[in-house]
Amino acid sequence: MTMMTEESIRLQLVGMDESRASSTSATSDADAGGPWRWPFGGNSNNKTDLAKRETRAVLNLRAVVLLVLLLVAIGVTMLMWFTTSQAEQEDFETNFVGAASKLILAFDDIVEQKLNAIAGFGVSLTSYARDNNNDNNNETTWPFVTMNDFQQRADSCRALSDALFLNVVPKVAPDQLDQWQDYAFAHKGWVQQGQDYQRQIGWEHITKLPQQQHQELLQQTTQQQQRQQGPNNGTEVKFIGGVADKVWFYNETWDPAPDPMVTDSLYPLWQSSPLIVVPEMTVNFNIAHYPPYAPYIRQAMETGQITFGGILMAPPGNVSYPHLTTSFNAFILSYAAGKLVDYQGDPFSSVFVPVFDGYEHGRKQQKVVGAVFGVIQWAAYFDNVLPTNSPPVTVVLENSCEGPFTYQVSPSAVHFVGPGDSHDVRYNRLAQTASFRDLIHDDDKQRNSTTTTRINMPSLNEDLCSYSMTVYATQAFEDEYTSTLPIIITISVGAAFLFAVLLFLLYDRLVEQRQTLVMDTAEHTTAIVSSLFPAQIKDRLLEESRTSMLRSSSKTLSTSTITAGGGGGLIRVEKPLADLFLETTVMFADVSGFTSWSSVREPSQIFMLLEACYQEFDKIAMRRRIFKVETVGDCYVAAAGLPEPRHDHAVVMAKYSDNIIAKMGTLTKELEVLLGPDTAELGLRVGINSGPVTGGILRGERARFQLFGTTVNTASRIETSGLPGRIHCSARTAELLMQAGKGSWLQKRQEPINAKGLGCIETFWVQVQSSGSQSQALSICTSNSSASEDVVVPGFSDRIGRLIKWNTEILTSLLRAIVAQRVELEEAPGTTSWETTFSGIPLGEVREIVSLPDFDAEMASNFKNPDEVIIPQDVVAEIEHLVATIASMYRHNNPFHNFEHASHVLMSVNKTLARIIAPSAATSNDLMQDDSKVAEFLHDHTYGIAGDPLTRFACAFSALCHDVDHTGVSNAQLVIEGAPIADRYDCRSVAEQHSLVLSWAVLMRPDYASLRSLLFSTADDFHRFRQLVVNSVMATDIADAELKALRNDRWDRAFTSEVANSLKESPRDSTNRKATIVIEHIIQASDISHTMQHWHVYRKWNTKLFEELYVAYLNGRMEKDPAEFWFKGEIGFFDFYIIPLTKKLKDCGVFGVSSGEFLNYAGSNRAEWIEKGEACTAELVQLVREKYGEKKTNVTESLETATLEQASSHHDPADALESAWSDEQEDADDENLE
User: Fold this and answer.
1) How far apart are CA 320 and CA 326, in angstroms?
2) CB of 272 within 8 A of CB of 197?
3) What's the rounded Cα separation, in Å, for the pair 92 and 105?
4) 240-286 pLDDT, tens digit each
5) CA–CA dist 1036, 1018 (Å, integer)
């Protein structure tokens, strides 16, 4: 129970005293649970009213101050935010307008420079034509002009103008067509010169094309040659040396055909840079017949002005893409880049700059004789137009023909966003727009311009398509000039005001908290003290603490508390806090069988039982107004008649005792499903006595209320001499019950009891006769528990039904671990396709080494908590049905080899496997820093047993089924009797093999297919499980001398260093060898675990085994009366089997600090058996003879001794007990003796 020190009580009372002196506010009635009552006098109502008035005034002033502070804070912060954010916004707008203006001016200069470069190239053509004219009139002979070194000159122009393609387009009159075609064919040498030039500068990309593209081009070339070699009837175009023999165009099937335009001027492509080799050479292609170019070339020729064509876009692709514009754009881009590149689908435009026949008298007086046709990529014209430190902007290029196109322009790159206007509409008000007409000056402005670069450039004509561009800001641009500074400043100012407000609130809160704290502390102190101590003791304790504080503050000491010490000093003696309670009844309740029960349980199970019981006892005590004194271990102490006197203390204590006994019986039955076998056998032994007691507080550390006196001691002695499930009372209590008219409840005990320190006393049994137990039903809700409310399994007794439920819960929890591991390994549930029927006998399947899974670090580091796994209800139902089926196969008339024994073995296996750890090493600093290292260390240290949940399930299943259909006699007797199963299994380990075969057949039934699918995900899992079960069940035959020798040899191979080193096997095989033999020894130890548990557990199962052997003896199925060898046989069994086995379990090193528990219990039981064994044997003999009688005849006396010796293989402890005594007499040099 919770304890409180004297010092802590005093500290709390100091707060309560200060509260009285200085508090200006009080806790409301609702908070305090009712009007506060001052513990030391005074008018609490007047003080509460005064505190309320003062509190109201303080609250009003507090609200006004807070409102003013908040209004000022909001106003100042909003002003700071508006001012700073507005300044940043203005800075952003100013910088954008400046950047946009610079962009437009830069674009103006760039466009004029680039167009001027093309116009200058046109002037050079005019000059070249005049210089090469043989006519003395200095007139050109257009269109018959071919410029030498055209590629070199055109490359220079393209570099200056960023034009991707340049072509001279002469104007050919209809009457000049034949003459032009002859001229073009005669002067085709420029094509070869251009190809040589391109080859010289490294333009050999055709040879570097991928194989597929190269084959396509070869096919196209072949088709051209075929066309060229055919007859020319005037309807076909021949390409010779890259030049068409006619002016041509693409017909409806996109094949070259002679141009039919004979009444209008033709504009054939002539010299071009670069030379186009795919899909055909473009020489003599009449662009006046090509819709994307036709209107613009005519406009340029007719007006003598620069004319921009429309926006040309095509699907993205490379030079071999099956689209004319795509392949053309990809080719000219590749030539400009110096490597093969793809066309990305961005806008291109054509530009037509007129060429005149002269330049002396102004362009308006000159004749337009041709044009320089160029193809430009708009992205190149936006490149490097922004200052290097400028953020990106959005540029919308728009013409009146195709609409807008959006670019994002930054100093280092130009990104085409897509067709349409995609700018951020938030920045519409900042847009900066300029038209090309404004950017490119007309002729009059050029003549007045001081810039010499504009003199040769014609004016711009936008009658067909007018161009403009608009510059918009972007979010990135705004982010460059806006920051979090306004927010920081605003937050800083707001934080300053908030800090002031918080500081004010904190101060106010501390004052209020101090006042509230002292009041609450007083209340809480009173509540805690009330729960720990009776009311009278509580009041005196509080009063003493107050007096002590007042005395300390005045620095005076009462002489009544001072005594002289032996050393001349003073010893302060406090007045005791104790009372004499004259009329009380004290009860001691102890859990009968708890010590032996707890010896085979885990600590968590022990506390689960005690907490469940004590909580219910407390509830009943509160209802009965019984004072709970304390609990000491499994002993519950309570009293009636204190601290509040009551005349019916004996009656109410008797009723209370009856209630908790009934509740104990209900709880243990329900908890047996969770806590395992024998839980329902626990009972409550109650002793009560009435009389005066002294109760008080023993000061010091962890002070508590205690009872003293003869009444208490007598109640304790009466309890220890009582019986489970019964109320044992003293004569004084019985007298009080009779005075209360409850004499019918009493039954005098026949013999008096001898109580230590009291002598012989008379006692009574109390049987409360009322309307029934008033205990309340226990409701235990445990997560992931498969236990249902109805623990009874149809067809079985309540006890067996509870054991079935418990076994089901154990197997289900082990299955959760298997599924959890499978989830981490990402393994799907298995199938049953690889399940096989095993031939031969199980004994022949025993293997020295069973391979367990290797350690998986990833799985260990991410291991899923098994408690979080939910097993489907149909699988849980299959497990319960499987357990019930196995239970039905046990012969329940066997006192020892029955389902209860199997459950006890399973409980021992589960507990033993749970203790396979290495705590001393696993808690080292190096390992604790890495969970995966801890897991790996434990895996290696425990030989992989702890890390494989399937192994644990196999061990549990083996424990559950290892004695199925056991006949109650030894293997040797079955051989002697010639039982059919003895012949079936070659007279070796008959019962064990029989149990295994039956149980395995049950597990393989179709009824349990869902269970097996969760158990086995692979064939390896299935066969490993089978092997583990075979080895485990066969290991329970501990009497077969040959198997025993083989098992000892296998142990030496695994754990004796000299033998193990000589095997020279791999570390993995060595580990698996150790794991296999350890598992077998765990099963063996669990099968006889009662010999290594508490003395009472040992005696219980020892009695059952003796009874079973005696029944076999009476039935003529055992040669000797077990009474003849039982005492010495047990000693031999301990010396030659149990203790050596426990030493092996300790030496294998996998059980950590628990490794010595088996050996300690075995040694303790052996010592106690030596002391009490003969008396115990006599009691056993008397017990079984009273129950079964004595044997009249021995039907096996005629059997020869040789036959007995030949069939001397034994089964389980029954065989070993009988053979151990014979071995001791016949072979004193047995190897186990050492």
Assistant:
1) 9
2) no
3) 20
4) 777 888 888 888 877 888 887 667 888 999 988 888 765 557 888 88
5) 28
More confident residue, 829 or 1133: 1133
Q: Is the pLDDT of residue 733 over 80?
A: yes
Q: Are 351 and 308 in contact (CB under 8 A)?
A: yes
Name the residue with higher pLDDT: 916 or 1090. 1090
Q: What are 349's strand-pairing partners?
A: 311, 376
Spell out a b/e string for 434-458, using b for 16 or more CB atoms within 10 Å of the CB, else e.
bebeebbbebeebeeeeeebbebbb
Q: In this structure, are residues 661 and 675 in contact, taking their beta carbons and an 8 Å threshold?
A: no
Q: Is 383 exposed, middle or buried (0-12, 13-18, 19+ CB in 10 A)?
A: middle
Q: How many other CB atoms are found less than 10 A from the CB of residue 105? A: 13
pTM (whole model) above 0.85: no
Of residues 1137, 1145, 1142, the one with CA closest to residue 1078: 1145
The mean pLDDT of 107-130, rounded to a whole number, is 85
**CB-CB contact of 366 with 355 (8 Å):** no
What's the 3-state SS for 317-368? ECCCCCCHHHHHHHHHHHHHHCCCCCECCCCEEEEEEEEECCCCCCHHHCCE
Element housing 710 (H / E) = helix 710-720
Helix (H) or strand (E) holding 628: strand 627-632
Nearest alpha carbon to residue 995 among 1021, 974, 1014, 1023: 974
Strand partners, 308: 351
Amino acid at site 402: E
Structure tokens at 1060: 């193990």
Query: Which residues touch 7 (CB under 8 Å, ≥6 apart)?
Result: none
CB atoms within 10 A of CB 1063: 12
DSSP 561-616: GEEE-TTSSEEE-PPPEEEEEEEEEEEEEEEETHHHHHTTS-HHHHHHHHHHHHHH
- Residue 396 tokens read as 């919308």
What's the Rg (C-alpha) of the chain?
Answer: 54
Element (H or E) spanning 461, and its range?
strand 460-461
DSSP assignment string, 379-438: HHHSTT-S-TTPPPEEEEEEETTTEEEEEEE-SS-EEEEEES----GGGGGG-EEEEHHH
User: How far is C-alpha 1056 from the chain's CA centre?
Assistant: 43
Q: Report which of 839, 849, 1113 is spatially closest to residue 973, judged by C-alpha positions.
A: 1113
Helix H or strand E segment including 578: strand 577-592
- What is the bridge-based pairing of β-strands 306-312 and 272-273? unpaired
Q: Do the strands 414-419 and 403-409 form a parallel or antiparallel pair, or are they unpaired? A: antiparallel
Q: Locate tokens 């032009």: which residue? A: 180
Cα separation, 1005 vs 885, whole angstroms? 11
What's the confidence (pLDDT) of residue 832?
57
757: left (phi over 0), alpha (psi -120 to 50) or beta: left
**In terms of Cα–Cα distance, which of 659, 640, 620 is closest to 715?**
640
pLDDT of residue 1153: 63
Q: What pLDDT score does 152 carry?
A: 87
C-alpha 616/C-alpha 639 separation (Å) is 17
CA 357, CA 920: separation in Å to the nearest integer?
105
Roughly what angle, to the nearest 10 degrees, separates helices 899-914 and 798-825?
40
- Please give the structure tokens belonging to residue 1001: 């057949």
Token readout for 504 is 């004010």
Task: Tell me the two tokens of residue 814.
Answer: 């082990």
Sheet of 414-419, strands arranged across: 414-419, 403-409, 393-399, 467-472, 432-435
pLDDT of residue 130: 82
AA letter at 624: R
Instruction: Work out whether the CA dihedral 1041, 1043, 1049, 1054 comes out positive or negative.
Output: negative
b/e per residue, 132-152, with b = 16+ CB within 10 A? Answer: ebeeeeeebebbbbbbeebbe
Read off the pLDDT band of 542 (50, 70, 90): low
404's CB contacts (< 8 A; 6+ apart) are 396, 397, 398, 419, 420, 421
